[in-house]
Amino acid sequence: MSWDARQRAMLAEMGYRLPAAMASTAVVEDEPEPIAVAAPPPAVMRVAVPPAPAVEPSAVPAHFAALDLPGLRDAVAACRGCGLCEQRRNAVFGGGALQQAQWLVVTDPPDDADDAAGDAFTGDAGRLLDRMLLAAGQRRSGRDDAELPTAFVTPIVKCRPPRGRAPQPAELAACEAVLARQVELLQPRLVLAMGLQAARRLTGLAEPLGRLRGRVHEWRGLPLVVTYHPAYLLRSPADKAGAWDDLCLARKTSNP
Ligand code: SF4
Question: Which positions fall inside the Uracil-DNA glycosylase-like domain (predicted)?
């Protein structure tokens, strides 16, 4: 894999330092160390966790199944499919490619700022997310280099759980119908789960995030890669190198 000047600049903005031998201005042709696709660790304790049932296309509720993306966005804004509608200010549908997306980025539930704005990742975490995507050769629609493939970024549930609690299994299950329709419409090549709650829901595994990273899972027939949430990386910049490894794995998986 090569990194051009733009990607090196984006990596620098992420706070990730390339090894000195790779930091020259010439395009780097060296292949980085292959990212191990780790076998599932042995003796993993599996505890009760909301399963990640694949919502088959036929299971998408009829009132979502006929909607295009703008229509689905409107339906989500008015959705009362679970109790999370009671205290939301705004549903967060997500943003990015308007027709097809190469990556579907599924994040943890909306935070207070997302709930207020009705949009995901509008602050520092969003800026870091955009730099991460750019470094990996992706962009959110309408942002940055229009020639790059697009990613669509959406939370695992569209409405903020009260006081930032974790969403309950019934809430996750209800909102997965929206995610299922988003997948149908966007037809991504790969799903990138950012954050523990999104990762556990989509993998169906109640493991620490570190054990879910570094391998390719599957969700709804699509390859699924797990990485850190950008807000976590702002608090723990030492893990940006690990996030870059994850992005390389996602990039290699979606462009074999
Ligand atoms: S979380 Fe999802 S299912 Fe629940 S009300 Fe919001 S949009 Fe509807």
Answer: 93-248
